[in-house]
Amino acid sequence: MRKLSYFIAASIDGFIGDPSGEAAFFTRYVDEEYLDFLKDEYPETLPTHGRRPLGLDHLENKRFDTVIQGRRSYDLALKAGVTSPYAHMRQLVASRTLASPDPAVEIVSGDVAARIGELKREDGLGIYLCGGANLAAQLIEEVDELVIKSYPLILGTGMPMFGTEFAFTEFELQSHRAFGNGAVVRTYGRKR
Question: What's the whole-model pTM score?
Answer without folding.
Answer: 0.94
